[in-house]
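Continuing the series of single-chain predictions for the mutant panel. This is the parent chain; the variants come on the following pages.
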Amino acid sequence: MTRRKTRPALVLAAALLPPLFASCTRATDREMRFDVVEATIPEMQRAMEEGRVTSRELVEAHLLRIALYEERVNATIAVNANALTEAERLDRERADGRIRGPLHGIPIGLKDNLATAGITTTLGSKVLADHVPEEDAEVVKRCRDAGAIFIGKENLEEFAAGATSNNPHYGAVRNPWGLDHIPGGSSGGGGANVAAGVTFASLGTDLGGSLR
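Parent structure:
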């Protein structure tokens, strides 16, 4: 993961714009008849099965949306620097007829209180800014096994204890449909990213109504 203190979204935008625009051109050439941002996960799976889009292109599109929206929405704490590499590996597996599961090649978000082996998991707290778990949470492992690509760790209420996602260390998450409104909490980063089309889905947690 690339930590946000280096403004990874802006770095990614500069690095990815040329291939992203090339991907849009290739998709147009293949007469891609769906909106990558609005499509459902089953629709994306069908599109990949039919060769209309690749997992790499999906990841590129969503990394671009992080670059476009992150400054205003503030929903992502860290971006997965290996997301494109993972997408390419999953594209090769698909080409070989090896499908891991229903999330094969799909970029999704991950609330930053869910443990990721070898990757910082902050729980939205400065105290745990350098906390690196030794193993994945079970839900993370199951999604990986099903083929998911975690595109980033998402902002949240500190220690997932609150209803606003106004984080004192990583900044307030904003509602992408109204920047002067909150997205709710504690899974506000995931909610905001899904609402903005930054990810197809997000893993969150619910102690007292967060996801609901």
